[in-house]
Amino acid sequence: MKKSKNSLSILFLVSLTLFSYELIASRVLSVILPNHFSYLVISFAILGLGLGGILAYFLSKEKKYSLKYFIWSYILSYIIVISLIIMTPYLGNPIFYILLTMIPFILGGSIVSYLFKIQNDSHQTYLVDLFGGLIGIITAFLLMSYLGLIETLIITFMLVILLMIIPFRDNKLVLSLSLLIIVIIFFNFTLLTSIYENNFNSFKTSPHIGFNSSFEVKKESVFTRWDEFSRTDVYPLKDDPNRLLVGMDGASFSYMIRFDGDYSKIDYLKEDIGYFPMEVGDPQKVALIGPGGGEEILYSLIAGIDEITAIEINEGTVLTTEELKKFSGDIYNHPQVETIIGDGRNVIRKSNQKFDQIYLSLVMTNIGSGIANASAESYIYTKEALGDYFSKLTSEGIVSFRFHSQYDMLKMLSTVIEYSRGIGTPHNKISDSIIIGFRPRNDHSLKYPVMLVKPSGFDEKEVKGVYKLMVKYDLQPLHLPWIFEDDSLKKMKEGKWKLEDLNSQIPANIDASSDNQPFFYNFKQGIPTNLLLILTGGSILLLILFNLGSFKIKEDNFVELVLVFALLGMAFITLEITLIQKLTLYLEHPTRAFVTVIASLLLGAGLANLLYYRKEMLKAKNPIFILVGLSIIELILINKLLYWTGIKVVGLKIMLVSILLLPLGFLMGLPFPMMIDRLKAKDLNSLIPYMWGINGVGTVIGSAISLILAIKFGFDISFSVGIVFYSLVAWLMVKLK
Q1: pTM to 2 decimals?
Q2: Helix, strand, coil: what percent of the chain each, to 5?
Q3: How many alpha carbons lie under 13 Å from residue 729 in its C-beta half-sphere?
Q4: Which of 340, 395, 537, 700 is most deeply packed, by most CB within 10 A?
């Protein structure tokens, strides 16, 4: 009994620290690497859990597995690996980050799979594993929210060192040393935090960080804040003392303008192309989505706009302007500005106000997307988002955009056209509601074009006034109804072309974006390379492990067992990832959705195994048949929930989602330990670490499949394929029985 309690205590702490490590590593890598590479690294790193199980299987078979040795190795790898990722200069290739980040997962996975093998009750073991992960991810998230990422990292160092106490509690030297190290870390907490923050060398040297590669900035930042959502930095520009560069996760840049309350000193901003929409239609009440450092707020003020609603999702950006108020003029607290921290689309949707203009200028929604996302979902740029914006406009209101390049401009053009067709607007009227302008450049590139969309349509008098403004501000029309009509839009207006004809002419993915496929900034045609790499690598590894096992494992149902454990991993992760991505819209942030979905599923699965452990009546049932039916119901309910505005407080939304997902997590948490029980019933305990490894590889394959399906066909198809995977598992389990 004592041995069992010790093993469960070890399992709890390993699961807790592994989930914390995953969240922390994701946050660090999303700063160092582009978002798609960050996802690639974490996906392959989690593959280490499966490799750890395979390693434990072969070492156990040769009677060479030492739990104490692997615990020591796991503790050291946890501290050393994350320290190396932060403190070493950029390593030059994501493969090095894959290899580094994978080490703690391999060692932790070997410990967990071995403990599953030696414990008698699989459901009790799985319960402890799940609750350890649940507490780990919630603890890490809350600590990052209130203390910051580096502080959270130091605390997890103390937690992982606690692992030494359990297996070595009879060794006074090791016990004393462990407690001494924890005490030293505790009393030097501030010093250690400073060391890690000041020596974040991978960030300082990464070529993927815009501060290092795209802008001429001075060496030291004047402000840095790192929370659970993003890292916010502010750097002075070398050649412009009147602007500071504000960046989130080393990207998503905006400018903070020097402002002391004297509008005459910032009159030069009228020369920016971003100012132009403020002059169109004489707006008096505007909503700015993602104003960043506050540049668009200043555009509004010098245009004489009376009421300005500034909606910024990243609290760190707003805090920078308050911290540097002597420079920024504390722009977010200006008397004419109402500041709201939140997701722009959700704020607009919940608002009871009507606006003359809603303005989205160079808005990027990639904060937090390094977690569980191949491409950043851009729910603010979908067809359904347009409907939300248009519903909050006055009768003559306009939605305005400023884009990075021709590709995001063309993708929004496709989205506007598709939305207009969807609500029944005649094809010869659609182009009359769109104005596009740009400023010519010497290299002939289309940079920072602006688009204005007026649902009620522009009349000829308005268009003539807009043309005069374009001449005044040195802009060139790309599409101006009746005066300078774009050839493609003119053909559509005349019925000679369809939207599909326009899209076929562009060597990029400019298909309309929807809430079911919200990957607005995914311009690449075909399947993203990094996802193909994950899918190919995972599939090859699964084949290798299968062939390796088929030669050494003599079991009649070996093929079926491998398929069941692989499909369980694929099914679970497919539903989980799809839920995270879909619920990002409702929960208003990808990181919030990530934590809520995983925590809810873990809690549900934990409760299931707690009841299974105590209630004999559950053991005669096959939960997957019920799970398949419930999953279909959940998909329908979630699709309805996304557009329900009955609850506006984010905390209550989290509670509602958690309640909705608990039954699903309950049923998803039963098949894996049930299969472990079957192995034990047939005296196949030695196979448990091997099948744990197969399950881990299946998880990585499933994550790639779910995202490929989401990008190509939408979230509903991705979720449905997860249900199909579970159906196959149910069939195989019946066959095995």
Answers
A1: 0.88
A2: 65, 10, 25
A3: 31
A4: 700
